[in-house]
Predict the structure.
Amino acid sequence: MTGFHAFCRRSLDDIRAQGRYREFTALQKQAEHFPHYRRPDGTEVLVWSSNDYLAMGGHPVVIEAACAAARAMGAGAGGTRNISGTSPTHDALEAELAAMHGKQAALLFTSGFVSNQAALSTVLNSRPAGADVLWQVFSDEKNHASMIAGIKSARSVCHIFRHNDMAHLDALLRAAPAGAPKLIAFESVYSMDADIAPLGAICDLAARYGAMTYLDEVHAVGMYGPTGAGVAERDGVAHRIDIIEGTLAKAFGCHGGYIAGDAEVVDYIRSVAPGFIFTTSLPPMVAAAALAAVRHVRADAARRVRLFERAETLKRRFDAAGLPRIKSDSHIVPLHIGDAALCKTVSRRLLDEHGMYATPINYPTVPRGEDRLRFTPTPLHTDAMMDQLVEALCVILRPGERAEQRAAA
């Protein structure tokens, strides 16, 4: 065995000993019966942790668009965007996304991770102020791994500000070199803590110190704002954000990532970002499905209203049952467990004993000791489903209390 093989074995043994070894759960999504999935043995599972937030992945409009495009254009794009991989559907989807965000242009990537990594690294490796002047980037401490990857792969000076702490961000901006280009990178909805950034305050600081703004809206597009353009639309600050990044893989139920911004900025990233240039384009059928989903969601305000009503209902039911819910300002409902092994056990028991699935979240996604289950009720989760979930969680998390209640009855 080589030294690297031995290293892998030791590392995996250590991960297992900490109770945070990740095992994939095979679940077959059922388009017509979402949020019910099937296990390989045929048993049905009620899923509570899907990022298909609006249940658009199985919407007939989306499925038919994908099927029609596949029949017309085949399964794959057949090349990069520059080598036969750009169809009229790709162009139409980019135009739709730009219009949704009120921007001049948009650019598709193969995933939200790639769009963040490629766009941030490209911007931060540029030298608008001269060859020897490095970008000063200000990154929220809870930014997604894709944003961190983009920042780390660039030759820039990174300042990490405490999560949503505007006083700390102000101090860091004030101390940075006045003549250096600056960029503030942040998210709107932070999916693990379920809180929302103060976008207006960040824009105010950016204006004061002449900084660009880069906003990740992946957990907000489709859901927030009058037309689902995200928290920036809801808060009336989209015009103050230089680059908005989003995904087609969550609320829109499809696949892919994108950025939107001024035409020259988007064109520059299109022209020089390796993560865009040297990868095969999104399949036309995926682009067609996403285009149908975006157009439908923009006009379907009732679906957004239903989503938030369902999320608030689940929060109230967790609170009424005395379950350890983490405070949430968004549609995401986290439940604190606190131990990696226990979190995994609770998730497994929910699945094996109660036919429900909730993803265990542990380090490094969240800090050690902050392990949690993450629930994302969709417009299709009913009150009866919530009753089943709360009852199951009470049985698993408070077995002694439940036994006393049964004895008293």
